[in-house]
Amino acid sequence: MGRAMKLPADKVSRLRSAYAGKGVCVTGGTGFIGGHLVDALVSLGASVRVIDDLSNSTLEHLAGLIELEPDRVRFVHGSVLDDEALAQAAEGCQCVFHLAALGSVPKSIEEPQRTWSVNATGTLRVLQAARNISAERVVFAASSSAYGDQPVLPKVETMAPQPLSPYAASKVAGEHLMGVWSQCYGLSTVSLRYFNVFGPRQSADSAYAAVVAAFTKELLAGEPPTIYGDGTQTRDFTYVSNAVLATLLAGASPTRLTGQVINVGTGKRTSILELAQVIAQLCGAPHVSPVLQAARPGDVKHSQADISLARQLLGYEPVSMLEDGLGETVEWFKRSLAGT
C-alpha cells in the first residue's frame, strides 16, 4: 500500500470491500496528504479522480500513478473555485474527499482574502458539486487549529472553536458548511480535524514548511533547526498513515454521518524541543542545537487530540507512532536529497 501506509490486515480487507470499483474524487490530490490518500485508494481498487490547481504541489508523483493505472486514475487541472473543473472531476464519483486548501497559518495572515476564498468558498463549491452528482459522502480535511489556544488538554470536539488565524477561521467555516449541507440537502458529510500531520513527500521548500519537514531539511544540511518560540510548545504529531487511515474509514463508514467533527491524531503530545532532539539523532547530528526566534502570530501553545470519538464512530486507532514515523520520514528525505 505504498511506503507510508501500514494498515492492519482486518482494516485493509474491510476498506478494499468498501472502495474496490468505487468512483472517488480527491480535491488537492497532488498535495502531501492528498497524494498519500490517492496511493491508498488506488491500492484498494478505487477509480480516482484528482482535481488540483498545482499551486502548492507538482504532478510528479501522480503522473507515475496515471502511467501505471491510466484507466483508474484521472487528473483535472483546476481550482475548487472553478465549477466546471469540479463537475468534471466529480462526475461518476460516490465519495468526495475534500483536501484542497491553502494550508499555512502564517501565509493566511499575509493573504487572508485568498485563504478565505479557497478554503471557505471553495468548500461550498465542492459541496455543491457533490450534491449535483448525488454523492454518498463528503469527507472534509478540517484542522486542529480550530481549537485555538484553549488551555484544556486534550482537545475534545465539544469545545467551542476559538480560531486564532484566517486559516483556522476558514477551516471552521468549512466544518459549519458540512453540517449545513447535511441538514438542508441530506448530504452525508464529516469533518476530520487533523493534528500536525507529517511524513514522506511533505514540502520543506517554503518559508511556511511544516516543522518536521523543515527541521529534517535543515539538520541534513548540517544547519541548526529554527524554532519559533521557546520550544516548550507541544503538538500531537500525527504520521501521515494515521491521517490516511482515518480518512479512508470516514469515507467507508456505514454510519450516516451528518457533519460530525472528529479529531484525528495520536492522543500524545511532544514538545518542539524534544522533536528537534529526536530528528537531530536520526539525521546523525545529535549535537546540533536549535536556534530560537520570536513566536509567530496565530501559533498555539499546546495541542493534543482526544481520539475517543474517532474510535467510537470510525473504529480508528493510530497505526504508527512518532519515532517510527520520524524514522521513515528522515529516510525519505535522505533519499530525496541524494536523488535516489
Instruction: Describe the sheet with the most strands.
Output: 7 strands, parallel
CATH topology of the domain at 15-198 and 237-267 and 306-319: Rossmann fold
Q: Shape, please?
A: globular
> Can you list the strand order of the major beta sheet?
3-2-1-4-5-6-11
Estimated radius of gyration: 19 Å
Percent of residues in helical segments?
40-55%
The CATH superfamily of the domain at 15-198 and 237-267 and 306-319 is known as NAD(P)-binding Rossmann-like Domain
Distance N to C terminus: 20 Å
Quaternary status: single chain
Number of strands: 13
CATH class division of the domain at 15-198 and 237-267 and 306-319 = Alpha Beta
CATH architecture of the domain at 15-198 and 237-267 and 306-319: 3-Layer(aba) Sandwich
Question: How much of the residues is beta strand, in percent?
Answer: 15-25%
Pairing-aware structural class of the strands and helices?
Answer: alpha/beta
Number of helices: 12
- The overall average pLDDT, rounded, is 94
N-to-C series of helices and strands = HEHEHEHEHHEHEEHEEEHEEHEHH
Parts with pLDDT < 50 across at least 5 consecutive residues: none
